[in-house]
Amino acid sequence: MRMLTTMTGKTLAAGLLAMTVSMTLQASDLAPRFTDADGDMVADAPTDPAQWVDPNTLVFAYTPVEDPAVYAQVWDGFLKHMEAVTGKRVQFFPVQSNAAQLEAMRAGRLHVAGFNTGSNPLAVNCAGFVPFTMMAREDGSFGYEMEIITRPDSGIESIEDIRGRSLAFTAPTSNSGFKAPSALLEAEFGMVAEQDFQPSFSGGHDNSILGVINRDYDAAAIANSVLKRMISRDVVKPDSYTTVYTSQTFPTTGYGHVYNLKPELAEKVKEAFFTFEWEGSALQEEFKNSGEAQFIPITYKEHWEVVRTIDQAMGVTYNCN
Asked: What are the boundaries of the signal sequence (predicted)?
């Protein structure tokens, strides 16, 4: 087990493969086994065709935010479309954690994936992930906000009221579930975990939300996109929580492929995303409450700049061993 070092110098256990989060290395550095000749901050495809991956079955994984069984159904129509475009069988891989998803791609068992906002830098730098798209609304706008929520009867009406209480984070790699709220609480309110409040890691946004409602935690930092989807499925009632803080807008899940996927196949994977018909799809039904209606082109270098800035502000980076 490796240790996660926060900006306060305290440590929290984090089983993140053989990767450490440290305060000493330069942020967003690719692992030595990768090259970046064009300076786009993601790994280049190998120049030797013998190193390309051209599997009979493409394995796809969606970020492990909520119940994987639910999302296997949500993504089924899209994956059938990807099969038609690529000519490959496509298998849904129901990952249970960010660590499992990252390790699968790093080990060559995962070819196409959606990594959550905060874990994109780790996936890019350590697993050779090449994000190229994310979901957006019809007008091209995109993103979600980090919210700090509590119960209506908790007695917490502002951030300062969390002092001396419990606050749930999701996972150390999560932007809205850990990194952004940690930076915010110290920078804007002078509040530090284990000194001013008792932190916990729930393992996921849905766990944090339900933990607040069920009185396991006094408050929680969560992605409001997940909250909206849970409300739309009647898992959460709108009057069962209240929001005490809403952040700036962040990019949402980034979708992409592993760096050494055969270039012609990688282009077909991109084509599958950009030609998918949202109207009447299970994806449209699932994500309609947060407004997503299409996949748009993105680059890691541009669209994840705000996330890398948060990492740098926290003194956090990923050392890939």
From this structure: 1-27
Last residue in a domain, options 205, 223, 250: 250
Same domain, 243 and 260: no
DSSP 3-state of 163: coil
Rounded to the nearest angstrom, the gap between the alpha carbon of residue 227 and the centroid of all alpha carbons in its chain is 15
Q: For the domain that residue 42 is a member of, what is the CATH number? A: 3.40.190.10
DSSP 167-215: EEE--TT-IIIIIHHHHHHHHHH---BTTTBEEEE-SSHHHHHHHHHTT
Looking at the fold, whether 51 and 86 belong to one and the same domain comes out as: yes
Range of the structural domain that residue 278 is part of: 2-141+251-320
Residue range 25-45, pLDDT digits in tens: 334 479 999 999 999 999 999
Tokens of 83: 């099969």
Statement to judge: residues 287 and 269 lie in one domain: yes
- Nearest partner of 176 among 287, 297, 306, 21, judged by Cα: 306
Q: How many domains does the chain have?
A: 2
DSSP reduced 3-state for 129: strand
Percentage of the chain exceeding pLDDT 70: 89
Query: How many whole angstroms separate alpha carbon 42 and alpha carbon 228?
Result: 31
Find the angle CA(76)-CA(81)-CA(68) to the nearest 5 degrees: 20
